[in-house]
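User: Sequence for Polysaccharide biosynthesis/export family protein below. Tokens please.
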Amino acid sequence: MNFKTILRAGLFVFALSLVSCASRKDIAYLQNVDAVTTQNGVANYEPKLQNDDLLSIIVSADQPELTIPFNMPQIQGNYQINENQDGIKTYLIDAYGYIEFPVIGKIKLAGLTRSEAIAKLHGEVKEYITNPTINLRILNYKISVLGEVVRPGTFKISSERITLLEALGMAGDLTIYGKRDNILLIREVEGKMTYNRVDVTQADFINSPYYFLKQNDVLVVEPNKTRVNASAVGPNAPVIISSLSLLTTIIVLLVR
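Assistant: Structure tokens for Polysaccharide biosynthesis/export family protein:
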């Protein structure tokens, strides 16, 4: 093997080192989905109310005039006006898990699902109104997706129910450089931050506590080895390769 061939081979190996080979197991989602049985709890999932949740609570009844004390705002500034909803009274769950509800006073809702909170409010309000109806919604339900996705950002969720895969879809999906087997989910549980790893290439995460996201969850998609290597070389990689190619040509000409 002559010197010219050795130089060209070295240049080829260097260029190849900038590229990392990937296989289907690194890219495809839910690869073993046919072998996974969905648990009943997935279909019945409801998020739990948390501290700092902003709630809309409206009481209705057959005699609307009886609901006025429960729906009347204390001050005009307590109204939230957005998304074509005019004058909705809002309630912020405080640091201890309580809201201050008209007539009833303090009532603890943090830690309850939406259905449980409605049942609790119904039990309190029916002491004053016959057959009341309670409508409750979380107004500030949001999640954030950061890292190696097409459109990172914070997204407001109107349905109060979103899966991890749907959240990734809202962010435009992972880029080809995102690690699908090690997504970080940051979640607050009982006032403490927890850090959890999710592998979306394996379908069994559908039955995990992380399939459905909770309000204020943050997803962080880490870069894979190819992206890390590219960042180490930097944006000047094409210039480096061109320079080495030119240098190889000059050396070959000199040694002829």
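The chain has a mean pLDDT of 82.
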